[in-house]
Amino acid sequence: MDDHANKVLDPVCGMTVDPASARFHADHDGTTYHFCSAGCERKFRAEPARYAATDHPAHSNPAALESASPAPAGTIYTCPMHPEIRQDHPGACPICGMALEPLMPSEDESNPELEDFSRRFWWTLPLSIAAFILAMAGHRLPIDASTRTWIELALSAPVVLWAGAPFFVRCVRSIRSGHLNMWTLIGIGVGAAFGYSLVATLLPGVFPASYIEHGRIGVYFEAAAVIVSLTLLGQLLELRARSKTSAAIRALLGLSPKTAR
Ligand SMILES: [Zn+2]
Ligand SMILES: [Zn+2]
Fold first, then answer.
1. Could you tell me the distance, in angstroms and rounded to a whole number, from the CA of residue 138 to the centre of ligand 2?
2. For 108, how many CA atoms within 13 A lie in the half-sphere containing its CB?
3. Per-residue pLDDT tens over the stretch 23-40
4. pLDDT for 17-27, tens place per residue?
5. Is 256 left (phi over 0), alpha (psi -120 to 50) or beta?
6. How confident is the model at residue 105 (pLDDT cuts 50, 70, 90)?
7. How many angstroms separate the CA atoms of 56 and 11, rounded?
8. Poorest-pLDDT segment among 63-67, 97-101, 186-190
9. What's the 203 CA to ligand 1 centre distance in angstroms?
């Protein structure tokens, strides 16, 4: 690993930048801030107070990073795809939105994001499956069309609004930072499908009669729910593969002698 002692954090997106080679700078309150890109500099100049706030410790003083980091000393988190991202607490990568990994696998095996995502996935999977079956085969059931729409709304709302909530957070973050990624796409896609269907359910009168199919305005609740469930499944598989790799590295570390003879 190269020495990051002379690097500072871009206060907008959280990337590390080298002040010596950075081409984008701005002064605020007597401190010079450095940026990864013209986009980040522009955002900073528009609202310097917001980004210069204290939630980015050590943006100008690398020594403060050491003292500010919490007790399990010096655990640095990085993105598997963007090694330039380095921060002293877990979170999502500001560029691609992936969960950050500890640079050195720690002793304890728990992975809070994996636990959180598997809870969201398993609790809402039955709802997604039910919404999907109802949307595909509901017209054969003795339920009238508008009741079916409301049931699909009730089934998919917890999936999209609760299980999918972290995706929307990442989507908003990617748009704010200007680093568009997979989450921008998923957030906008799921949001559009769910939002449109919600309007079609609450205010069916605003749509022209040609939108009516099988006795109701076509809705896409099941599509939104299934996308969220599949995305969660993909995240689970990825996080599990990553935690297995960490476990293998831990096992290797365990084989190294504790003391030199
Ligand atoms: Zn930046
Ligand atoms: Zn990344």
1. 41
2. 5
3. 899 888 888 899 888 888
4. 888 888 899 88
5. beta
6. low
7. 6
8. 63-67
9. 42
Beta strands of 19-170 (E only): which ranges? Answer: 24-28, 31-35, 77-78, 86-87, 101-102
Residues 107, 197: Cα–Cα separation, whole Å:
47
Neighbours of ion ligand 1 (CB under 5 A): 10, 12-13, 36, 40
Task: Give the single-character DSSP code of 109.
Answer: -
Whether complex ipTM tops 0.90: no
- Closest-approaching ligand to the CA atom of 100: 2
**Ligand 2 centroid to 3 CA: how many Å?**
20
**Strand pairing report for 24-28 and 16-17:** unpaired
- Is residue 227 predicted with pLDDT exceeding 50? yes
Rounded CA separation 136/121 (Å): 22
Collapsed DSSP state (helix, strand, coil) of residue 140 = helix
Mean of pLDDT over the chain: 83
